[in-house]
Amino acid sequence: NYCAFSDCISLTNIIIPNSVTYIGSSAFSKCKSIENIFIPNSVKEIGFNAFSKCSSLKNIIIPNSVTKIGYSAFSECTSLI
Q1: pLDDT for the residue numbered 3
Q2: How many Cβ atoms are within 10 Å of 42's Cβ, its own excluded?
Q3: C-alpha to C-alpha distance for 66 and 34, rounded to whole angstroms
Q4: Which positions ≥6 away from 62 have C-beta within 8 Å?
Q5: Higher pLDDT, 1 or 69
């Protein structure tokens, strides 16, 4: 859902369950404490701004199952290498 966890400052690690096929737009935007995200092979699409402004995000693996990544999905994720 749109903005489902937006601005959750205490989230540090996210494990998306295998039942999820779509990460909604701005779902985790502005979650400044997130460091790690695990996205399973069930996910096909990541919405726009889904993880934008997650400034502590260091690790994310996007599986080959993801065929669409929305605009600015990872914008301002300044800790990503």
Answers
A1: 82
A2: 14
A3: 21
A4: 39, 46, 69
A5: 69
Number of other residues whose CB lies within 10 A of the CB of residue 17: 9
Distance CA 63, CA 4 (A): 22
What tokens were used for 11?
């989230």
Helical segments of the chain, H only: none
Q: Report pLDDT for 58.
A: 94
Strands lying side by side in the sheet with 68-69: 22-23, 45-46, 68-69
Query: What are the tens digits of pLDDT across the range 19-58?
Result: 999 999 999 999 999 999 999 999 999 999 999 999 999 9
Euclidean distance between CA atoms 62 and 44, whole angstroms: 10
C-alpha to C-alpha distance for 23 and 78, rounded to whole angstroms: 21
> In the sheet that 36-38 helps form, which strands lie side by side, from edge to edge?
13-15, 36-38, 59-61
User: What is the rounded distance in angstroms from the CA atom of residue 17 to the CA atom of residue 20?
Assistant: 6
